[in-house]
Each structure stands twice: as structure tokens, then as C-alpha cells.
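re: ur question from earlier - yeah i can do the single chain one, its not a big deal. heres the input i used so u can compare w yours
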Amino acid sequence: MTSSDSKTKRITVVDALRGFAIFAILLVHSQEHFMYFEFPDPSTLPAWLNALNQGTHDIIFALFAGKSYAIFALLFGLTFYIQQRNQEKKGNDFGYRFLWRLLLLVGFAFINAAIFPGGDILLLYAIMGVLLFFMRHQSNKTILIVAIFFLMQPMEWFQQIFGLHQINSLNGPLWDDVYNYTKHGSFSEFIIGNLTLGQKASLLWAIEGGRFFQTGGLFLLGYLIGRKGWFVESDQNKKRWEYVMAISAIAYVPAATLAKLTIGSYAGLVFDMWHKVLFTGVIVSVFTTCYWSLPRFVKLCKPLRSYGRMTLTNYIAQSYIGAILFFPIGLNLAPHLGMFASLFVAIGIFIFQVWFCNLWFKNHTKGPLESLWHKLTWITIRKNSNIAKKQLSN
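and the output i got, formated as C-alpha cells:
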């Protein structure tokens, strides 16, 4: 097998890492009750349970908040590279087909946002994914420079330098409205609010929270990693990830410290985004090296591999399951479940989804929504191909 072939075949460590990221997103969302911030009154709970709830929240957010999303974004760029490379081998340019694919992703974003208060990341991905289209034929050096530029958070530095030192959030009132219609609105008001006000609040939060530029940078970084073949198992790549691990771990400490010292300012926001990206580098490098070095770790990752092959389906299904469990339109468990109990709800959802994935893959090669996305992506090509065949037969 050639080197290029090895770079474009299915790489199981990527499936496992993608599954890890989507599970981590589930853990974070469960702590937020899927953006419906209703919890039991602490005054009615024993002190030990309040401490347990707070500890659960702090640990999960320290480990995964902002990091699971970053892994997901990194792998989005990697996936585009694999798709682009596969089509290049056939003499095709995947770029324009990718734009159509992003437009389809907008549709999936609204399917998810309909039930998920405050919008979601899929619409942000569809918007920032256009950057990959324009950068797909650039040199590795150019891609790296642009990725670093985006990850430097230029908009936040501009606001910091020109006197806007304190963050004045514009989306706070929007989230208040989202909470109100989630708690008190009818089912139709809930859906309409999510599709309109919720998506607006989500995108504005992404801009104000630094994720807009960070997402673009991570997309390009993932694309570059794909070009370099860093997820193909080899001694050289093991050393590369060990270097990433060491550098990220060393740089994380000053970045996290500066984030705390400058909290509330745009500079603090930048350092916060940096320390999350650096911690993401630690997670990805540790996960990858363990996967390549520890057979027992590979066995433990078996559920994550099937889970990671169905990320779109699982991500959207999480929103619907969470809505049914936590929201007033469903069982309304949010006011009755603390963060510790919500952790076990998330684990239960994960176990159920893994079971479904394993059952589904007995007869299918792609998840339900992945298959639909794939078919819609290539529908016009297949249609044109059929027309061409009929013309040749005539």
C-alpha cells in the first residue's frame, strides 16, 4: 500500500477520537441541561450533595468544556482533507461539491436547533467551512500562517488594543428570552423561538466568545494535519504527537494563569481560548499515543469507534433525547436532577446510542443522517451519470 493510500483509508484512531469528542460534548450539555438552566434548589439539598454537584460540574467543565468542541472542529478539517484527497485521486475537485455539502449542513443545523435552545455549532461550521474551500489549494506554509492568524483571535486583540477593555455582552438579553420561552412557551413557540432567536443568540455568542475565529483556525489546522498524515500510525508520528503533548502542556500553564489574571477583558478572553486549545492539544496527543501504544486502550475505545462513525446522527439525537428528558415539553426532569445525577443521565444516553450504533452497523456502512448527507451530497452527479448512460445507450 502506498503512503497516499494509507493516508486516505479509514483510520480507526480518528473514529475513536471523534467518538470521544461527541461523548464529551454530551457530558457538557448534560451539565447545562441542554441549555435549559433549571436545577434543584440547593437550599433543599444536603451539603454533601451540593458539594458533589458542584464538583461534578467543575471537573467536567475543566476537562471538556471548549475542548470537546475544539477536537470536533479539528477533525472537521481533517475530514475535508480526506474527502478532497479521495476525489483528487479520481481527477475531481471536491471544492464545489463541498460548498453544496455545507449548504446541506445548514439544513441539519436547523433540524438540530429546532429542539436545542440557543442554536448549535452546526450552523457555525457551515459558515466557517467556506474557509476550507478557499484554502484547499494553498501551500502548507500559507495554510499554517492563516490558521495561526485565526487562532491568535485578531478581533479580540483589536478590541483590546483600541480601548474596549471590558466585555459588554450583547447576547445576554437574548439568552434570557430563550430561557423564558423554553420554560413558559408552548411547543410551537419553543420551536419557532429556537429556529429564530436561538440561532441568533448562538451565532452572536460564538462571535463574542471568540469561537468564530477559533473555529476557522482549527478547521485549517485539521486540514493541514490531514495533509501531513499525522494520524497514520508510525514511529515518526508518535514522536510528533509526543512533541505536541510536551509543548501544549508547558504552554498551557502560563496561558491558563494569564486567563485568570485578565478575566473580564478581551485579553482574558484570548488567553482563555488559547489555554483551551492547548489543553485540546494535550488531549489529542495523549489519546493518539495511547491508542497506538496500549492494546488495552484500543479495546476500551471500541465503543467510541462505532460512536464516532455516526457523529452527526448521535449529535442531533442527543439534542432530541435531552429535550424529551429535561424540558417542559417533555418529562421536565431539569428542576429535579442535579449535576451529579445528570452525569449518569448522559452516561445512559451514551450507552443507548452505542448500542444503536452497533446494531445499525450490522447492516449499514454509514449512520442514518450520514447516509442521507452522503446521498444528497452526490445526488446531482449520480443523476447526470444516469443521463449520460442513457445517451450512450441510445
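The longest helix spans residues 266-293. not sure if urs matches, ping me
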